[in-house]
Amino acid sequence: MTKYIIRRLLWAIPVLLAIITATFLLAHSIPGGPFDYAGEKQLPESVRQNLMRKYRLDAPVYVQLGNWIWDALRFNFGPSYYSRGQTVNDILRRTFPISAQLGVLSLLLALLIGIPTGTVAAVKQNTVVDYSATFIAILGVSIPNMVLGPLLIWVFAVHLGWFPAARWGVDYTQLYLGIFPPMTHEFWAHAFLPMVTLGTAYSASIARLTRASLLQVIREDYMRTAMAKGLNSFRVIVVHGLRNSLIPVATVLGPMFAGIVTGSLIVERIFGIPGMGRYFVDSITNRDYPVIMGVTLVYSVLLVAGNLLVDLSYAWLDPRIRYD
Predict the structure, then answer these.
(1) Structure pTM?
(2) What's the rounded Cα separation, in Å, for the pair 246 and 318?
């Protein structure tokens, strides 16, 4: 197991370098530059050239890439071209914990809803329960966040007044250990609606995967043998069947975890959450190369780490899998 982990970590280095290089080249190939305009006015050419020289953007692209990688190895992602007076480190330090909180809570909600729903649908196959669960899952996947979010705000914030309509409810300076929010009533009141909005589609996808996989596992010989021995059906399904059926679910959790933790632009926009997704899209529009590269690197590291954890979870879910 240790050798496998070390080998995977070593393979992650060229993968990250490839992602960084491709992103850097694509970002610099977009027409326009970060200092072409100041607001709606075009900067004088002399001023633009001075800014390009100050931020070393007048060097060849391969030199700029080498400089950025060297700075990134020292965890220095440079200044933001658009958010003046702020570095990329400041932006990530302020926004990543908020996006991570929203993502982790939404993913936990998706798992708590999706796995039990898929399990019940598989056990009650071709019944009203199965049809209802399948219909709800398809409905959850079909409704986009840009529709569900405003709908929840209109019902629960505007008409019923149960939850606030926007903001996150906790300042980044109040976090424990830099990432954990204080679990106050105000925090949960602000977090509930965006958490439900972001977690609904994921829970529906997890429910469908769990149902399809569990239906296949139920038909295995060892499941029929356990039932024939007189074991409790609930124990057979949960302990023996569900554990092996979660391998397809675990497979999608890797990229799902990376995507949901780094922030959802639509949900953050709808609920006014100052997360990382909003800065990432704004950085593309404003040609803010350091922010693009910093957020991409964070996403890539989370994706590699998530996939590694998924592969390691296979051995726990199915004892027949070994990494010797």
Answers:
(1) 0.81
(2) 9
